[in-house]
Amino acid sequence: MAWSIIQGAGLERYYAERTELPPRPEPLRERWDSVEPERMPDGTCQLRMAVDGLRCASCVWVTESVLVRTEGIESATVSYATGRATVRWDPDRIGLDTVAGRISSLGYRPRILGTEARRDDALLTRLGVAAFAAANVMMFSAAIYAGWLGTMEVAYVELFRWASLVLATPVALYSASPFFEGAWTGLRHRVLHMDVPIALAVAVLYAQGVVGTLVGFDTYLDSLTMLVTLLLAGRVLESGGRRRAAEAAVTLAATVPATARRIVGDTLEVVASESLLPGDRIAVGAGEDLPADGVVVAGRGSLQRALLTGESAPVVVEEGDEVWAGTVLLDGSVTVDVSVAVEGTVIQQMAEQLRQAADRGTRPSSSDRLAPWFTGVTLAVAAVTFSIWLPLAGGAKALATTVAVLIVACPCALALAKPLTAAAGLGAAARRGLLFRSADALLETARVDVVALDKTGTVTEGAVEIVSASDHDVRVAAGLERYSRHPIAIAIIREAIARGLALPAATDVREEAGTGISGRVDGTPWRLRSGGADVVVLEGQDGYRGLIRIGDRVRDDSRRAVGALRALGAYVALLSGDDAEPTGRIAEAIGASEWWADQSPAEKARRIESWRQEGRMVLLAGDGMNDGPALAAADIGVAMGTGAASSIMTADAVLGVGSIQPLAAGVRVSRVCRDAVRANQIRSVVYNVLAVSAAAAGWVNPLVAAVLMPLSSAMVLAGAGRVERRVRALERA
Amino acid sequence: MIAITFLIPIAVGIALVFLILFLGAARSGQFDDLDDPAERILHDD
Which residue does chain B place closest to A126, by CA atoms? Predict the structure, then answer.
């Protein structure tokens, strides 16, 4: 079957060029029939999907080639960096499930974007087997070591050795196989990463164990099983849920309504929004989402642009004004001339930007930096040990000592330092209200020196509120607005209630779309109208004119949070899509170092990019969908848990409470963790130097190894356990 | 010391029971998603 695919596709060359054994075919688990692919104008379908299990450039090449040579598939591109494939096919000739089946027949796992990558079941099984064996082998070893004190019949010692070997075999051959695979891949690519010294130690331990059991000398199989168990536990911790940013783009596009009402002659017809073309005329009523970008040719209304600009205050649109897909017409009704086709709309461009930013690839990790150095030194010491002992004590003793060196040199503690510390740090940060997506995001946060904050919904509540107005004006306005659902009306009524004003009854109330509301309160006529971006004017008889100033309320703790961030040495900038006046006022109120007004989503992303190019590490906190591109561009994107779902999906971390207060705590936790990881790495290196010296001197026997090896891991564990306490100490200071 | 011949199988057997329980839990998906349930409260739906 596999051979026929390969031959049919002319891929014999793959076997000469591949650098990695592809994984076995996996059964399809996804529900591909529930996916709506993108319909292209020429009748083909296009879909972007995730492909899990791509492990080398050759995997990408073979996947692309097989897909392109499949009957009915027009084009296919696969990205190794992001693990994404974009496939275009003819729906009349081939189905999506066949496309997906084709990928999985090669051994990779196609996945619908937005669904979670499956956790590796096998990893847990490996861990379970290793833990089971470790518990029992340690018990047998304890018996053997106890036998050293008195007399123990040789037959029983043999029995325990054999029992240990039987249990250690699945650990070495099955549980430890990821380390061997990893080491092999690394050697193939001439990269000495952490798996290489680990695999070396496991191999030496097991070989020594087999020979020792057969010939009859002490083995280190207890160390072997425990080592593999600890390392696998670290790996399980590390492989915790990681979601990719690119998947947020799907949600963004979904906010454009599926259908539009097109005006044809003097009737209306319902058409798919995607089929709208420039020049089409559409009707949009109160409460409806705009299906396309265009210009208002008739009617008026208030437009809520929060999705595009992040600003919740509505603006009035009338003849000649531009409107955009993804905005909402709160009241009134308008006729719109469509100006661009769906692909050209602002919201589509935003989604595209988000995709590109997310495709930037994964950040390089620092964890494997020590490994090559480590392996080199270990091998050198082993070689020196052997060559010194050989003339002194003969082959058997030289070999035993060299084996002991290789065994105690296993960088178990070094490999565990990061996952264990990060797991403790993730918990500590979560208790303070900041949920990190991954260990890498947590550790990177320590280096943040620019904190960019979105204004609306992040440092402010994100809702309109009354800044200043007299009790009289609020009372009258609240009476008029009593039944309106307009955001400003809601704010006025809330203000009246907060001030303890009784809402008067209004009569003859008439709402004029996009301009205001009029009616009689206490028998006299009043009119409430918009007076600009942040003023509502109340007009009464005899030229009475009251001003109600509206604005966005700053969160109570924003100032304190900014102060805490600046105290940590961060440069705090406020980025807003809003006008200069309110932005400046709020920047002042929270004590930001700098502010930028009138920033479009793309400009925000560019601003962040320019900071990054200066070599600064940028953290951005934002809430709206419009912050998606900026969140993806920042080194660390933090979404408000109360914000849009797409921003939450794009983010590296999520603020669990409606406040930016936890940001400073998160930076603190991150710094503690970074220091703890470093300290752990130094400790494990020092430990290794001492242990290897002792082994080279010939002082290490299986009991010493069994005590020494978990000691280093326990040291790392203790370091991780201190994270919470250190963070608390730092908070008190 | 003859006790050893049945104590070892008993000890291994008990551990085996726990291994089977653990594998059963892993297969049934109990460890599939350790992060999302905690964050679910943040999502609207």
Answer: B23
DSSP per-residue letters across A53-103 = T--SHHHHHHHHHHHHTSTTEEEEEEETTTTEEEEEE-TTT--HHHHHHHH
Strand order in A506-512's β-sheet?
Answer: A460-468, A545-554, A535-539, A524-530, A516-521, A506-512
What long-range pairs does A300-303 form, CB within 8 A, spacing at least 24?
A: A300/A332, A300/A334, A300/A513, A300/A514, A300/A515, A301/A329, A301/A330, A301/A331, A301/A332, A301/A333, A301/A334, A301/A513, A301/A514, A302/A329, A302/A330, A302/A331, A302/A332, A302/A486, A302/A513, A302/A514, A303/A327, A303/A328, A303/A329, A303/A330
Are residues B38 and A430, on separate chains, in Cβ contact within 8 Å?
Answer: yes
Place of tokens 């130094």: A682
User: Is the model's pLDDT at A360 over the cut of 50?
Assistant: no
- Which residues of chain B have a CB within 8 Å of the CB of A163? 8, 12
Residue range A666-683: mean pLDDT, rounded: 89
Q: Is A631 in contact with A623 (CB distance < 8 Å)?
A: no
CB atoms B4 and A132 under 8 Å: no
CB contact under 8 A, A121 and B34: no
- Minimal Cβ distance to A125: which of B23, B35, B44: B23
Nearest of A709, A664, A663 to residue A684 by alpha carbon: A709
Indicate whether A21 pLDDT > 70: no
Q: Phi first, then psi: what are they for A587, rounded to 5°?
A: -60, -40
Q: Which chain B residue is nearest to residue A435, measuring alpha carbons? A: B39
| Res A249: pLDDT | 39
Pairing of strands A109-111, A259-264: unpaired
Q: Do A520 and A506 form a contact (C-beta atoms < 8 A)? A: yes
Q: What share of chain B is helix, strand, coil (3-state, %, to 5)?
A: 70, 0, 30
d(C-alpha A651, C-alpha A620), whole Å: 9
Give yes or no for a contact between A639 and A650, defined as CB atoms under 8 angstroms apart.
yes
What is the model's pLDDT at position A540?
Answer: 86
- pLDDT digit string, tens, across residues A594-611: 999 888 888 888 899 999
Q: Between A and B, how many residue pairs show a Cβ–Cβ distance under 8 A? A: 57
Distance CA A368, CA A375 (A): 11
Closest-CA residue of B relative to A642 is B42
Minimum distance, in Å, between the CA of residue B30 and any CA atom of chain A: 11
Binding-face residues of B in 1-45 toward A, CB within 8 A: 1, 4, 8, 11-12, 15-16, 18-19, 22-23, 26-27, 31-36, 38-39, 42-44
pLDDT for residue A170: 94
Q: Are B18 and A132 an interchain contact pair (Cβ–Cβ within 8 Å)? A: yes
Whole-model pTM: value is 0.64
Instruction: Quickly tell me which residue has 């089409």 as its tokens.
Output: A280
Mean per-residue pLDDT, A85-113: 80
- Report pLDDT digits (tens) over A109-160: 787 765 555 555 678 889 999 999 999 998 888 888 888 877 778 888 888 8
Note whether A317 and A514 are within 8 A (CB): yes
Q: Map A424-447 to HEC letters.
A: HHHHHHHHCCEEECCHHHHHHHHH
Measured CA to CA in angstroms, residue A559 lies from A81, A492, A670 at distances of 40, 25, 22
DSSP A592: -
- Token readout for A681 is 């790495």
Model pLDDT, residue A18: 47
Report the DSSP pairing between strands A259-264 and A267-272: antiparallel
**Would the pLDDT of A306 be above 60?**
yes
> Is the distance from CB of A274 to CB of A317 less than 8 angstroms?
no
Chain A's closest residue to B29, CA to CA, is A121
Give the separation between CA A251 and CA A225, rounded to whole angstroms. 46
ipTM of the complex: 0.82
Gap between the Cα atoms of A645 and A642, Å rounded = 9
